[in-house]
Amino acid sequence: MLQDNYARVATYVNKYLSKMRFTSQLDIVNHHDINILSFYNDQDINFIINVYSDSNQTILQFLSQNIVNLKNTIIMTSDFNIRMS
């Protein structure tokens, strides 16, 4: 049985991008189905968001109840095989 504290999403960042100082942002959203990375592009901070949606749509329910407005979100990825009831 999968426990709630195991991450079900990850984001790969190539080492050649390390000068952009990627950082996991657990202080913004700490949920096992979402991964938020921040990085610097010149003086600006930007975000990459990666989301996993299980068959129960757990993360969609979480996000609808805990809306977070992140300016400068560059990309948001997800499992787009979502079945709406």
Can you summarize this structure?
The chain has 85 residues and is mainly β. It has one helix at 58-65, and strands at 23-24, 34-41, 44-51, 73-77.
Walk me through the structure.
The chain has about 80 residues and is mainly beta. It has one domain (about 15-75). The chain is about 10% helix and about 25% strand. The chain has 1 helix and 4 strands. The protein has one helix at about 60-65, and strands at about 25, 35-40, 45-50, 75. A 4-stranded mixed sheet has the order 1-2-3-4, with no helix packed on it. Strand 2 and strand 3 form a beta hairpin. It is globular and about 40 Å long. It starts with about 20 loop residues before the first strand and ends in an 8-residue tail after the last strand.
Give a topology summary.
Layout (H helix, E strand, L loop, with lengths): L22 E2 L9 E8 L2 E8 L6 H8 L7 E5 L8
Keywords:
85 residues, mainly beta, four-stranded mixed β-sheet, 4 strands, globular
